[in-house]
Amino acid sequence: MATSQALSLSIKNAHMLEKQANILTASSLPAETRDTFHKSLLLYERFFEYFRQSRMVQADLIRDEFLQHCSMLQSAMASNRELQEQMLKMQRVILDAHPEALDRLVAIQNRAQAILTQTLQLHDHPVPRLFILLPEDSARWDNVQPQQDKLRLYFLCECGDHTPEAKSSNLQYRIHLTQHEGYALENAAEFFQRYGPYSLDLLQISKYVASTRGLTIHEPLRVGSTSPGEESTGLRDGSSIELGISQAIKYVMDLSFRDDWKLIGNGSKKHVRQMEEDKLKLSGSDLQRLATFLVQKDPTQPLGNLYRITTDSGHAKWICPDHYHEIHSLAAIKTFREMITLNRGTFLEHLGRVEVRLGSSAVALSVYKALERCKFVLEFKVSLQWDVSVNDLKVLRDALQHSRIVILDLTCRASNSPASDILSRSKRSNPLWEIMMNPTLQSFILSDYIGFFSRVTIPPQTTGLRVLKISELLNWKKESLKVMELLGKCPQLHELDLVVSQVDAAYTEIKSLNYDFCSLEQLVLDNRRDLKAKPTGIRVRFKKGVPFSMDLTTADMSSPFFKDTRYLQSLHLHPGVHLSRVNVASHWLTSLVSHSSNMTRLVIQCDASDFLRLHVAVLNGIAHEADGHKLRVLCMYGGRNLIMVNDMQGEASVELELMSSLPRETVEALMRVHSGQLTKISAGLDLLNALIAIVREGGELALQHVEMTASQLNTNMLQCLPQILEACAPTLTHLAILVDRAWEPAKTERRRSLTLSSSSLADFIVEFGPRWTQIAMHETQAQNWLRELKLRGYVPSDSVYKNRAQFIEHDIISTTLVRLMAPPPHGE
């Protein structure tokens, strides 16, 4: 039986025996015997309390004391069969649990060693990884209930032999709680599903390592009351912290049994082997998501008041301000910050991240010199605003060699003037390659530079890169050998992002190389700078060298990536795929969907007149897959029109947005099917006529967002709009108008049959005054309009009134699609 199952059964048996023993205690036993038996029962309960918390030393002591009480009850057991059976059952359960305790102790020791000695690169360490959970209400630590109480998350300072205090100590680890009030958890249920096992590991390790003097739990920040009588949410003292950890372990284990998520570290041999292989680490994306579960008073502040550093061996650690400022002086940090601010840059001290634009080589030199002195700068994002020479790049190279920078994001342009670098033009990229091959550099991003692969004469050397992104368009036929030679020297590369002319050929070669090296986790290739080719881009994720997921963007129906769609997870089809060819497109799309059963997201750029037909084609493709299709999200868009199906598997959740003008027949067709799902509109005559017909027939509207432009309104539309807006009043959250015409007094206004007068428009705006969320006007015309509105009793607030330049139109591309096409979290 697996240890986790045995543990669950042992605890279940213990609870059952406790009930039986309580009944026996109340029976007619002699007073002395009843008292000894009662103490045995308390020891029995305490044994399993320690056992569940992995406090094995204490559990062994309690076990020995329980066995002594068994001996003291021998004579009474001889004359009372019920007492004898009860004591033997309890003794058997405790002795059976002993081998499990040893297995659990070994597993905890291994996990402690794996987690505390785990070495993470800066790229894999975006937020602190070590934390513990403690009950939020310290007054209830003796009786924490998962259904009622809450836990608070506290980050740990990873000080050790890389910090000054630990160098003067015999302790290998002196990890401690940071001087911070901790964080309440948001969406705790999802947090425990995702991080529960890891959280339990850290809690159990804290108990174990503390007992072996490998971890010091110092008192965390005592959060003072912000007002008289307000209770502090801080912790009380060091002794109570141990009790808090014990109660947190009980809390999390109770959750695990109740919610049935698997515990990491169950002590089984299979788990120990897996632990040795994976080292129990959270991925960078897992760590990044951790922050979303924390209730932060100020998201701009460092998490847990921790600062990121790198050790001499290049590994990332998060330490408290005290340890950080023992390494880096406040004066040096202040001077450097002033320099970056002077150059209109930003410096995030807790991350060691700098972003700056430099206008000349002289200014750049002063910043480079500062970088050599300031070892707290770990990330450097710099844009050189002049055409750089070979000498400029050499100066940057030399500065980086004397710095602690591990992530470089460089934007620059090479000079193409005839007199520039005339003797070294063929090797002008050499300094960039030498920068890239700096053994301390883990991430190299190069933008806007032309000739990185074509103008280099030095051979590649082994690098420590984990991320490589080059924005230059590479002619794969000419430069593939150089690229593949470089990749062969990047054994730790996890992310590669290239712009290439032949995406399919590049993918084939890189995939083959990755199978042998087994290091690449994500590959991004696209041809966006190749104006002659049909747009194509891929994002492929790998596990141990083998692709398991692909996101594809293409405008080519004959793309070679459609030949094998086993890994296709997300697909974005551009207009080059001729979906307007009714029969061909429908059959092709149906066939593609049916053969892509692992695809979860499909985005199609097409005309709104094709929305309904293509939706049916996709549904037919899903129906052809007998074993079940994974497609969940379908999005079709064209211009500012969009239809989104959020759940293809359940009852379809559809959102329709019509923000661009459409032919009347298209509007009527969409309204017949999806009028109830229409959420956003830009008012047009045909659309308003269709909506008013729905309202008059008793249909329901659920509009959330309505935009209109004054110059496009006429008297008929103004008659429809009030009824439509009243019909969707419960759901409407955004009502906006762009007044793009001048105020014309009634005397001078030229009247045509359907022309909307300025006075009528002003009356309409006033009628819906409190509902407007945005009213925009040209600055030259605003004074007259605002005066007329005021005369009618309505003055738009500052939050509602905008000038024309501030008018925010609903932008599908920058909102819905960016969110939709973002890569899924790692491992999903």
- What are the low-pLDDT stretches, counting only 5+ consecutive residues below 50? 1-9, 166-173, 219-239, 260-279, 810-815, 824-828
According to DSSP, the number of beta strands is 27
Mean pLDDT: 80
Indicate the overall shape.
Answer: globular
Q: What's the total helix number?
A: 25
Major sheet attributes:
20 strands, mixed
Question: What is the terminal separation in angstroms?
Answer: 30 Å
Helix content: 40-55%
- Class from helix and strand fractions: alpha/beta
Give the radius of gyration: 34 Å
Give a written overview of the molecule.
This protein has about 850 residues and is of the alpha/beta class. Among the domains are: about 5-105; about 115-220 and about 235-295, no CATH class; about 535-660, no CATH class; about 690-810, no CATH class. It has 25 helices and 27 strands. The strands form three sheets. The protein has a 20-stranded mixed beta sheet, with helices on both faces.
Q: What's the SSE blueprint?
A:
Layout: H1 3-25, H2 31-52, H3 56-72, H4 74-79, H5 81-116, E1 131-135, E2 151-157, H6 164-167, E3 176-177, E4 183-185, H7 188-211, H8 238-259, H9 269-278, H10 284-290, E5 294-295, E6 307-310, E7 316-319, H11 321-327, H12 330-342, E8 346-348, E9 353-358, H13 361-373, E10 379-388, H14 390-401, E11 407-414, H15 430-436, E12 443-447, E13 467-474, H16 476-487, E14 495-500, H17 503-517, E15 522-526, E16 536-543, E17 546-554, E18 568-573, H18 582-594, E19 601-605, H19 611-624, E20 633-638, E21 641-645, E22 654-658, H20 664-674, E23 678-682, H21 685-696, E24 705-709, H22 715-727, E25 734-739, H23 758-767, E26 774-777, H24 779-791, E27 801-803, H25 813-821
Parallel strand pairs: 9-10, 10-11, 11-12, 12-13, 13-14, 14-15, 17-18, 18-19, 19-20, 22-23, 23-24, 24-25, 25-26, 26-27
Antiparallel strand pairs: 1-2, 2-3, 2-4, 4-5, 6-7, 8-9, 15-16, 16-17, 20-21, 21-22
